[in-house]
Amino acid sequence: MHPTTPRRRIALLAAASAVTLSAGALTTMTAAAAAVACRVDYRITNQWSGGFGADVTVTNLGDPVDGWTLGWSFAAGQQVVQAWNATVSQSGAQVSARDAGYNAAIGTGGTANFGFNGSWNNASNPVPAAFTLNG
């Protein structure tokens, strides 16, 4: 039996290298910077003793991007073990997923998707609370 899979949709707004988590509020962008706005859907697809699978979809709501890096922090000691459709690295709780080259360009309204398998402590596997895009 698998627990209910939690879903988290988080809206992000960013200007150049500054990324601000948006909980319904908008930030002002400078005219010289490309507007980056996206939605992140992080979904735990499966969970078992000591491990889990996750599916992540980034939907571009702003200007087209050519090259992306999605960042987040794990709150309960989770570790990425294996990933596909992105190059994922982790240092402590900080995780960074970079495009795989063939999926670097995301047009306005387009999506990029990747997944990974991870390990967890069997006590808590919360979804990340915040994400950064290219920041």
From TrEMBL:
PROSITE patterns associated with the record: CBM2, TAT
InterPro entries registered for this protein in UniProt: CBD2, CBM2/CBM3_carb-bd_dom_sf, CBM2_carb-bd_dom_sf, TAT_signal
Boundaries of every CBM2 domain copy: 31-135
Coiled coil, from the record: none
Keyword Signal: yes
Protein name: Cellulose-binding domain-containing protein
Domain of life, per lineage: Bacteria
UniProt GO molecular function: hydrolase activity, hydrolyzing O-glycosyl compounds; polysaccharide binding
Signal sequence segment: 1-25
Alphabetized UniProt keyword annotations: Signal
Pfam families named among the record's database cross-references: CBM_2
GO biological process per UniProt: carbohydrate metabolic process
Keyword match NAD: no
